[in-house]
Design brief:
With 177 residues, this protein is α+β, with helices and mostly antiparallel strands. 40% of the residues lie in helices and 33% in strands. The two termini are 43 Å apart.
Length: 177
């Protein structure tokens, strides 16, 4: 996760996963090329072509679609909202909470991780909402991210939220005008 904007009024975290999808797309084109070569052989039949396309291209395109994702967390002090949007090849999901309901981010280990936590290279980062209808943990990404990125993003959110909570009562105080 990358911090793209960090001001007193706005914090934006972005995460884009595209490398695995690019590799699967390249493999799909390679599979199509081999399929073309199969059909141009003198004894190439449609049956062999269809089998080849099913075994290679179908699965690589499916995996390319499954692994692409883009997530964004926007903490906006001016509007008083936290917005989490998560886009995949299958659609866009958005959640919006008042900043008062957002407590913190939590960095956890992947459910299949073994060994000491300090040596785990991948982590899952979640946004913890303390009350309201969406109370609980909400994953910021569909897949685990590098531990350094997750810890840096969690630290940025914690620092921003702490600064916002310090000045929030001052911003909401009525003026004496």
């Amino acid at each position: 996760m990358n911090v793209t904007q960090n001001t007193p009024d706005l914090l934006i975290l972005r995460f884009t996963r595209w490398k695995a999808s690019l590799i699967f797309t390249i493999l799909s084109f390679l599979g199509l090329w081999v399929g073309y070569r199969i059909i141009t052989l003198p004894d190439g039949t449609i049956g062999w072509l269809l089998l080849w396309l099913f075994l290679t291209v179908f699965w690589t395109v499916l995996f390319a679609l499954l692994f692409v994702e883009r997530s964004r967390l926007v903490l906006n002090a001016q509007t008083g909202t936290a917005r989490l949007s998560h886009r995949t090849a299958f659609g866009l999901h958005q959640h919006i909470w008042p900043l008062e309901e957002v407590q913190s981010t939590r960095v956890t280990r992947h459910h299949r991780a073994t060994g000491p936590a300090s040596e785990d290279p991948k982590r899952i980062i979640t946004l913890y909402v303390r009350h309201g209808m969406d109370e609980g943990r909400h994953r910021l990404t569909a897949h685990s991210v590098s531990a350094d990125d997750a810890l840096a993003a969690s630290s940025a959110v914690s620092d921003w939220m702490q600064d916002w909570r310090k000045r929030e009562p001052l911003d909401s105080a009525p003026s004496d005008a």
